[in-house]
Amino acid sequence: MLQNYDGYIYHGLYFLSVFILQGINAVRTSFGDRIVPSLMVSDLDVTLDFYVEKLGFEVTGRYPEMGDPLWAEIERDAVALQVFSADFAPEGFPSRPGLTGTLYFYPDDVLRLAAELRGRVLFEWGPEVMDYGQREFALRDPDGYYLAFAEPA
């Protein structure tokens, strides 16, 4: 037993070991700094045309590299999405596209983005200030996925 000067060394080592053990349990690994949704689509060419030509995304990856793609990654600014055909879906995956929610994007300026997209796509709502305090507008992609663009009002 390490005991010296009325037990200070012993108690110091004990509390240090407790602190280290508690610290190990308290340390968490980050989820990262972004999320990239992966959406099944019914027609990859139609989807890529919509996101690239109408919304201004760029194709940053595709598989396979030659021929008709089964999967693609698209990006605009710091936002990325992956889209894939049903032929590329893992076993047991639903056989058709679907999402019971809305993908929210938070651009620098909702009104400026709405002005940029107006005339290219049909807005489902907005831009308007919602009663929950956000200014937003929304649209739907060719598979019916809702894309909302919002900022604090």
SSE blueprint and pairings:
Blueprint lengths: L7 H19 L11 E4 L2 H11 L3 E6 L7 E6 L2 E7 L16 E4 L4 H8 L5 E7 L4 E7 L5 E7 L1
Keywords: Membrane, Transmembrane, Transmembrane helix
Protein name: VOC domain-containing protein
InterPro entries: Glyas_Bleomycin-R_OHBP_Dase, Glyas_Fos-R_dOase_dom, VOC_core
Q: How would you summarize what this structure contains?
A:
This protein has 153 residues and is of the alpha/beta class.
Structural class: alpha/beta
Estimate the helix proportion, in percent: 10-25%
Annotated CATH homologous superfamily of the largest domain = 2,3-Dihydroxybiphenyl 1,2-Dioxygenase, domain 1
Order of helices and strands: HEHEEEEHEEE
Provide keyphrases for this structure:
2,3-Dihydroxybiphenyl 1,2-Dioxygenase, domain 1; VOC_core; 153 residues; alpha/beta; four-stranded mixed beta sheet; transmembrane helix; transmembrane; single chain; membrane
What does this structure look like?
This is VOC domain-containing protein. Keywords: Membrane, Transmembrane, Transmembrane helix. Residues 31-152 form the VOC domain. It comes from Denitrobaculum tricleocarpae. The protein is an alpha/beta fold and 153 residues long. The protein folds into three domains: 1-30; 31-96, Roll (2,3-Dihydroxybiphenyl 1,2-Dioxygenase, domain 1); 99-153, 2,3-Dihydroxybiphenyl 1,2-Dioxygenase, domain 1, CATH 3.10.180. It is 25% helix and 31% strand. The protein has three helices and eight strands, in the order αβαββββαβββ. The strands form two sheets. Strands 1-4-3-2 form a four-stranded mixed beta sheet, covered by helices on one side. A four-stranded mixed beta sheet has the order 5-8-7-6, with helices on one face. The N and C termini lie far apart (64 Å).
